[in-house]
Structures are given as C-alpha cells and as structure tokens.
Write a structure and sequence with these properties.
single chain, two-stranded antiparallel sheet
Length: 264
C-alpha cells in the first residue's frame, strides 16, 4: 500500500511537471488553456482563474492540460486555438512537456547532490556533499550520461539489438519507487529524477500518440506547408494508441515475469 501511494505521488508530480511545460508554452503563444487537471476522472475540486479551470480530479495517477483547439477533434480550426498557430509554435508547445521533465530531472540531480548523497565505504556509508557548482557539473554529467543510455536503449529497440523483454513497465517502476522509499528520501529523489528523465525522453519517440509523434507531424506540415488531412491524422493517432497499448501490455507482462508470475 505504501509503495502504491509513493508511486502515485511521484507519477502525479512528474505528469503535472510535464503538463506544466505544455501549459507555459501554450500561454507564451496565447493559446487558451481550458483545463489544467491534477489527476484524471471526476473532478473533486475546481477553481477558475481567467480562462482556465484548475482541477483536482479523483484518479491520482497523472494529470492533463486541455487547450482550445478543435482541429484535433473535429477537423476544424478554432480561432487562437492550438491548431491555428504556426508549425514552429505548435512544435515548441509540444516540446515543452518533455523539456520540462528533462529540466526537472536535472534540477533534482543537482539538489540531491547539493544536500548530500550516501556513499558506501568499507566502514559503512558517508555523506558526500559537493558544493553547488560541483553539484551542477556532476548532476549535468549524470543526466547527460543517463540520457545517452536511454536514447541508445530506444534506438536498440527499433533496430532489434535490444529485446522488448528488457523494458520496465508501471509495476516495475512502482517497485523501484517503493524500494527507494525504504532507503530514505534521498533515494526517492534519485528515483524521481530517473523516472522524470525517462518520461521526458520516451515522450519524444515518434509514435503518433506521443508528443514526439505529434512533433513529427507538425514538422512534416512545416516542411510541406500543407496541413495533414484530418482523417489521416485521426488514423495515425488510433494506430499510435494501439501500438502504445501493445507496448504497455508487453511491459506489464515483463514486470509480472520479474515477479516470478510468468516465465520471461
């Protein structure tokens, strides 16, 4: 139960951070944001500030931002909505979420180093606390190295060099978070940074349902100077959703296998 609560909290924070990136970029380009929700499902609390309703919803695993648009859902363009903006503006709004996750991972790495990390020694553990500048440099290098490893893993999945059985899903991430919580808040900080970095970079995968897929479509529109037909976009999004569902089922199966419920 404690593991589930910690994991729900971590995932909610990271998804809110992700959506905040989209929100801030949308506001920068004056796209009306209709809803900013912490959580999914039925709303529990709601406060309206200007054009935006800020919600606390019942299901705590995540959150979302609803921007005025129309094209994505009806094939029509709403004045000042997301679809009315230039390809570059839409690209930057989409990039805002993943970029915020990567920046948050870097911030957590720097703060974690600055407040101190426990380093194992022959006589137990010591607290290593580099200065702020060293924390920034070491944290930046750690995020850079981890990003390279994540990108190589993603590339390996596409080339077939890495098996899908190596992927970790929600259950596996919950285990990592729970184990980190048992070791203390510093370990939770490190695990949160790791998950945030993965969330940001994996959202850049060019799968239509993910930010990366939307960015690829916007990039194609910018190059060809032609809007993708609504039916084509809708078909691509459905295919992307199906592919993502298969991926989630695969990672869930992997997680259960690691728990000994299945043979990998």
């Amino acid at each position: 139960m404690a593991t589930a609560l910690v994991f729900a909290f971590v995932i909610t924070v990271l998804v809110v951070v992700h959506e905040l990136g989209h929100y801030l970029m949308a506001r920068k380009f004056r796209v009306p944001v209709e809803v900013f929700s912490v959580g999914f499902g039925p709303k529990l609390l709601a406060v309206r500030r200007g054009e935006t309703e800020y919600r606390l919803s019942a299901i705590p695993f995540g959150g979302y931002v609803k921007m005025a648009g129309g094209f994505e859902h009806t094939g029509e363009t709403t004045p000042d909505g997301f679809a009315s903006k230039t390809p570059l503006q839409r690209f930057l709004i989409l990039l805002g979420g993943p970029a915020m996750n990567v920046a948050f991972a870097l911030a957590l790495a720097i703060v974690g180093l600055w407040v101190g990390i426990e380093v194992p020694t022959q006589n137990g553990t010591i607290l290593y606390r580099p200065g702020f500048v060293d924390s920034f440099l070491i944290g930046g290098r750690a995020v850079s190295d981890s990003s390279a490893a994540i990108i190589l893993t993603i590339a390996g999945l596409f080339t077939g060099d890495i098996s899908l059985s190596a992927l970790i899903g929600p259950v596996g991430l919950a285990q990592v978070t729970g184990q980190s919580a048992e070791l203390g808040w510093r370990s939770v900080l490190a695990a949160t940074a790791f998950i945030s970095l993965n969330l940001g970079l994996c959202n850049l995968i060019p799968l239509p349902i993910l930010d990366g897929g939307h960015m690829l479509m916007v990039l194609a529109e910018g190059i060809t100077r032609r809007r993708l037909p609504y039916r084509v976009r809708k078909t691509m999004l459905r295919a992307g959703a199906f592919a993502l569902l298969l991926l989630l089922v695969t990672t869930f199966y992997n997680d259960l296998g690691r728990l000994g419920l299945f043979t990998l």
